[in-house]
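A favour, since you know our structure tokens better than I do. What I am after is a single protein written out in full by you. Could you add the entry underneath, on a fresh line?


***
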Amino acid sequence: MKIRDMLVLPSAKILLVLVEGPKNDKEILSILQMSSTTYYENITWLLAHGFIQKTPDDKYVLTDKAKKQLVNVFLPLFRYIEKLKETAAVSITTT
């Protein structure tokens, strides 16, 4: 299961799809399987707030603002994951 599938906010799911590279409406909708109403409300919000931009070939890409936001959100999770790995390694070696 991908992280984006565990998220609740449709806008966050769209951003994570775009981390993989530029996509058009049809590609994003196909990947996320969300209603077109939900999709278009969120894609409009992301555009209006400067998290994504549309390319001349009608694909969406992340802006630097979005990339910074994703790093700020997910970087702390990596620290927790590393701590869990350390804890798991210790408990495995002591059993």
Summary: The longest helix spans residues 64-94. The domain at 3-93 is CATH 1.10.10.10 (Arc Repressor Mutant, subunit A). The two ends are 29 Å apart (CA to CA). Residues 54 and 60 are 5 Å apart (CA to CA).
